[in-house]
Amino acid sequence: MLLVIDIGNSNIVMGTYEGKKLMKHWRISTDRQKTGDEYGMLINDLFRYQGVHISDIHNIIISSVVPPLVVPMVKMCERYFHIHPLLVGPGIKTGIRLNYENPRAIGADRIVNVVGAYEQFGGPLIVIDIGTATTFDVVAENGDFLGGVIAPGIGTSADALFNSTAKLPRIELVPPKSIVCRNTVQGMQAGIIFGYVGQIDEIVRRIRLETGMDMKVIATGGLARMIAKESKTIDKVDHFLTLTGLRVLFERNQQE
Fold first, then answer.
1. Catalytic residue positions?
2. What pTM was estimated for this model as a whole?
3. Is residue 155 included in any domain, yes or no?
4. pLDDT band at 252, cuts 50/70/90?
5. Would you say 227 and 200 are in contact if contact means Cβ atoms under 8 Å apart?
6. Cα dist. 155→41, 91, 173, 192 in Å?
7. Domain span including residue 234
């Protein structure tokens, strides 16, 4: 089996593949203080609960936007799985052309998402990853990565509002029934969520206008489904987009 690991700022998402089939998947909190041994024991416990054995894993691929965790995770793979993982980064063969001023500056998660989305849906595409930051990645009909947009994530915006004001509470991110709200919590929910939906729809509108392409819009991330219900532009939500992209990247690098 192939183990794919995506290390994000807030969560680490993992999955196991038999060929092209996703067998199991997990999401755990990103903790920059954890050692490779701690992650090794945690992953071993998750595996045992789901009936997966470490010896079942024959290959591993990792993408990360958290540099301090790369070395501990590589050491974890080598110690517990006896496998040196493939890392998404400079030198990896993506199968797409990166039309970016400095391709090395593109986050690994963005490359993985673009690869996974184009493999499944073709192009042209806008891939929106709703995470700690929200990224909009633009993909041409031939699969070229054309660039994109980076905005604060919805959770990041909510935390900033809570941390920067004396009286506003920390809130649950659920949409209220009305835009005109009669209490503080619902007023914050309306402002953050509907404002965020408006931001997404306006950025998509401007991308389509500038490129002249009627693009499919694919969203991923923990809050993608909630946002998609309110959005007029998101066509499909794929929670496993990053895992798919990691599998495809591993396959492309095995073929070379």
1. 109
2. 0.88
3. yes
4. very high
5. yes
6. 29, 33, 8, 9
7. 103-245
